[in-house]
Amino acid sequence: MASDGRRRISLGDFRHEALSETSSTNSECLARARAGDGGNLWVTAERQTGGRGRRGRLWVSERGNLYASLLLIDPAPMERLSSLPLAIAVAVHQAIRRVLPLGAEPLEVKWPNDILVGRKKTCGILVEGEGLPDGRYALIVGIGINISVMPDNPLYPVTCLRQQGSAASPEELFAHLFAATAEVLEIWDEGRGISEITALWRAIACGIGEKITVNLPDRSISGQFAGIDDNGLLMLDTGAGRIMPIAAGDVFFG
Questions:
Q1: How far is CA 14 from the centre of its chain?
Q2: Membrane-spanning residues where (predicted)?
């Protein structure tokens, strides 16, 4: 514990297990948690046979990309967990930045944690949690990054790092992700560092001030993207001075 009360996190706090193939790295981490794993475990796979994205969508997972999940056990009090996806997005952005050439298109984060290159999606992040029978809480952060393969997606444009001039391998990119995540989780500080994280997130955010449409489970709402509040909620200006906070939804520009 440091003198400022913050628990120092180092690379040595994390373990990594590399698999050739699995159904889902998130599912693998959850199984480890149910079996008593203490957390701070990265699981990567060259290929997933049952990868999934948000809302149960299929995540195409062929060889050549990075598929990684991080298992955390009791990472923060429940009331401070909502900012973790923002922190992870900052870490992934930093890792991808380190393997992109200087001439690549702009690298940005779309709320809450999609990573875009030139307004095209190259990474998705899925955060899942489960209370364990022994009272602990398992939180799994799944990260899929298009390096050399990208799925067809009719909902929005996609790209991969190869198209952007990066020659990085999945192993090289994961090494950067491993380091960046440890750095950012130390800043996040079990949710106490949310103001620092939101400042970092805003600096790399895509589309603040632009017109967006947010698809919710039951409806779609349009307005101006007014940024995020200090808890990471999307602030949607729907007109007439009304700002609507949104906790979850799919964002489309224009």
A1: 18
A2: none
